[in-house]
């Protein structure tokens, strides 16, 4: 069992080191990754902000999720439809009150 854990930690460290090299991070990140538990520090400080890791970041966040732009657009369309309906009804009632010439 310890060999499996060591292999998993080594693979994770290698993954974080390759990621730091690909991102061309500052040199101190290479040393951080090679320190004990440094790969976890690199993962939670740098890697979790990667768009590919968004699912993990969202699952770890404890606060409410910020609404997306699509949510705002949907709510805007709903409100514009409601406003349009209200103003259309008001215009119809105003036109009914105008006497025919």
Q: Quote the average pLDDT.
A: 82
Total beta strand runs: 0
Helical content, roughly? over 70%
Number of helices: 5
Overall number of domains: 2
Element order: H for helix, E for strand: HHHHH
What is the CA–CA distance across the termini? 95 Å
What does this structure look like?
This protein is mainly α and 101 residues long. It contains 5 helices and no strands. α1 runs antiparallel to α2 (27-34), α1 packs across α3 and α2 packs across α3 (38-45). The protein is rod-shaped. The model has no long low-confidence stretch (mean pLDDT 82).
Keywords:
single chain; mainly alpha; 2 domains; 5 helices; 101 residues
Layout of helices and strands:
Blueprint: H1 2-23, H2 27-34, H3 38-45, H4 54-60, H5 69-97
In short:
This protein has 101 residues and is mainly alpha-helical. It contains five helices and no strands. It is 73% helix and 0% strand.
């Amino acid at each position: 069992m310890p060999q499996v854990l060591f292999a998993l930690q080594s693979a994770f460290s290698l993954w974080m080191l390759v990621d730091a090299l690909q991102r061309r991070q500052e040199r101190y990140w290479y040393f951080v990754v090679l320190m004990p538990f440094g790969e976890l520090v690199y993962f939670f400080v740098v890697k979790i902000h990667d768009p590919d890791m968004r699912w993990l970041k969202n699952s770890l966040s404890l606060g409410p999720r910020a609404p997306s732009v699509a949510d705002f657009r949907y709510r805007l369309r709903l409100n514009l439809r409601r406003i349009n309906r209200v103003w259309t009804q008001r215009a119809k009632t105003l036109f009914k009150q105008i006497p025919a010439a």
